[in-house]
Amino acid sequence: MASVETVRGPVDLGNLGRTLMHEHVFVLSTEHMQNYGSSWWDEQARVADAIAKLNSLHAKGIHTIVDPTVWGLGRYIPRIQRIAAQTPVNIIVATGLYVHEELPQQYAYRGPGLLLDIPEPMVTDFVRDITEGIGDTGVKAAFLKCCMETPELTPGVERIARAVARAHAETGAPITVHTSGPHQTGRTTVRIFTEEGVDLSKVMIGHAGDSNDLDYLTELADQGVLLGMDRFGLDLFNPGAERVKTIAALAARGYAPSMVLAHDANCFIDYFGAAHDAARAAAAPNWHYEHISDDVLPALLEAGVTQAQLDTMLVENPVRYFTPAKGGAA
Question: Domain 3-322: which topology?
């Protein structure tokens, strides 16, 4: 069987086990942390906390997390390497850009027809992360990430999406897209990627589970993409009970092969600063790695989803997502 790159190196796809397809270890702004984080960022303590949380997750039977933390969310691979060395959980990392509207200035003036007229530098950077490694860490990204959040497609977001599509074409790496359920931006994603010749079976529509519109969700699934039912615990976007009902309804229609599960959780997110732990506990008490194992899977079984369908969502679909297309590479 083929393998997939993780922080510790290649892992046979048959050894991924139960996989949560959209989880972060940390969500940080490096500048925010360096300039204002003295009261809330303790590197040693946060690394130790992440190791403990991942080890606890592994004890629940989850063996792999897929971490789409890219530029814009604070990707720093040396820190993740320290964590991966002390947990049995496989951590699969990404390349790409987390941008809702405008390009980073570091790309705005470089590219075809721009001030510095060169081939698309994002493609160059993303491909290098996949084929050679991220920075000088030796860790290779195994998938690509971009965003489709706002209802109106901006030139910067479209340029990123098309760069991601072209890096996919060059490497065979699959793609995860942050989308908006209320704005149903999965449709825009599918349109752009179809124009670029992307293999839609290698695309995950992130945050599809924020929507309960079965027509929208089945329309996407019928085009071959995976639906990321991936924000369990974030009830402010869609209550957990509604998420369960939607997954059960889709599974009853035969769409278990089109869904994957996750929380979009993290061990620490700097949006709340020093109030992080209290704010999370108050706003989203179930937003943590173990909620699916403890609460969601029993609720799905009670709602009529079969164990075989859960295995499809947690084991088989992640393997299929990372299995190289013929002639491609994971």
Answer: TIM Barrel (3.20.20)
